[in-house]
Amino acid sequence: MLLVVACGGIPAQHQLPARTLRVVIVGDSLAHGAGDETGKSLAQHLDEELTRLQVAHEATVDLAVNGSRTWDVARVLRATTAGSALKRADVVVLSIGGNDLYGDSLARLFSSVAPRMMIRSVVGDVGTIVEQIEQRSAARIVLLSLYDPYRNPKLDADVNLWSSRLFERFHDDNRVQVITIADLFVAKNRLSRIDHFHPGAEANAAIARRIAEAL
Q: For residue range 147-185, what is the model confidence (pLDDT) as tens digits?
């Protein structure tokens, strides 16, 4: 699975209400914080960053499941527990799409042979997930892009293409903010010392910081 953003300003009409912030995280192993050497989830890192920024908030709700693809997230969103959390949420953080593109040998083959076609298809599936969230919640959606755990030039190009397609798909949706994270892995090796694939604790803290500072 891959995971990768630039943060834009939030239009005034979509500023968060001046009250206790409620955040829900949905998606795959990146969203869950797999590989973190400290055992913390991304939700826990985000709570720490919100506290650092003195943002009043409830404990972030973690609905992410390792290995998830877009259809897995769709199933999670249909669950009663998710529905209740989404209704109360001010922000939904979503990380999904990497496993659809690279989660098994067949997906990797298609993504290697026809990356543009695969990216276009999966971005469409992500769009469907976003629509489902928007139907169930009035929350803003923070959508994480992908990163390259292999430092492969071709994969870097595909990650950049993925990010550009996300920006293109959601540029007219004022409720969606795309955040890229690929640059967080360039200057230093921040991959997990456990699996050398997922973000490590330092990377998860940096991702959480980027999310928190965008809110």
A: 999 989 999 999 999 999 999 999 999 999 999 999 999
CATH 3.30.70.100 applies to domain 12-214: no
Both structure tokens of 36: 């973190």
Question: Per-domain residue ranges for the chain?
Answer: 12-214
- DSSP of 102-141: HSSHHHHHHHHH-HHHHHHHHHHHHHHHHHHHHHH---EE
- What span, in angstroms and rounded, lies between the C-alpha atoms of 121 and 126? 9
Residue 101 identity (one-letter amino acid): L
d(Cα 192, Cα 194) in Å, to the nearest integer?
Answer: 5
DSSP state of 10: P
Task: State CA 60 to chain mean position distance.
Answer: 14
Residue type, 17: P
Type of residue numbered 131: E
Q: Which two tokens stand for residue 129?
A: 């997930």
Distances 77 to 27, 98, 148, 198 between C-alpha atoms, Å: 10, 18, 27, 24
DSSP H or E run through 201:
helix 201-214
> pTM score, two decimals?
0.89
- C-beta of residue 191 within 8 angstroms of C-beta of residue 34: no
Tokens read off for 179 = 């955040």
Q: For 51, phi and psi rounded to 5 degrees? A: -65, -45
- Amino acid, res. 154: K
Reported as a pLDDT band with limits 50, 70 and 90, residue 47 is very high
Between β-strands 91-95 and 176-179, what pairing exists: parallel, antiparallel or unpaired? unpaired
